[in-house]
Amino acid sequence: MKGIIVAVNPNRVIGCMGDIPWHYSEDLKRFKKLTVGNTVIMGRKTWESLPIKPLPERRNIVITSQQIEGVECFKEIKKALAKSEGDVWFIGGAGIYEEALEYADKIDMTLVPDLVDEDGCVYFPKIPEDEWEEIMSKENEDNSKLIQKIFVRII
After folding, report:
1. List of residues 6+ apart from 129 with CB closer than 8 A
2. Which is it for strands 121-123 and 13-16: parallel, antiparallel or unpaired?
3. H-type alpha helices, 55-139
4. Which tens digits make up the pLDDT trace of 94-148?
5. Which of 49, 65, 126, 130 is most buried, by CB atoms within 10 Å?
């Protein structure tokens, strides 16, 4: 399985000024539950924004043209996937998500209610409706403010 895991607000914002502009421990717990024991693929800016590097109990891969000490780096997602086994989660940022839509077969999305000032924000790409189907939408079991959505590839 190759999945995208993301938290977005109603305007598809995923981050502002190099940070996530909200904090929901319930979403972080879900993120950890789904990604531990698997490979996570991220861009360089996402790597730099992590408070703990590498993310524990996961194989961390950064897509970058540079080499970063202490983490596996690849210049292309395709090459990273060729060297990966088991489940893979794309965890951001916007450019990685955009490219990952080509490779992923699942999107696990948390909708957060927070509206943020959109200067300096980055966005999750629009999900092509002719390629993806929403198969689940429900409240997060630990926080009814959060909505969990699952999309699967249909083509």
Report:
1. none
2. antiparallel
3. 77-82, 94-100
4. 999 999 999 999 999 999 999 987 788 999 999 999 999 999 999 999 999 999 9
5. 49
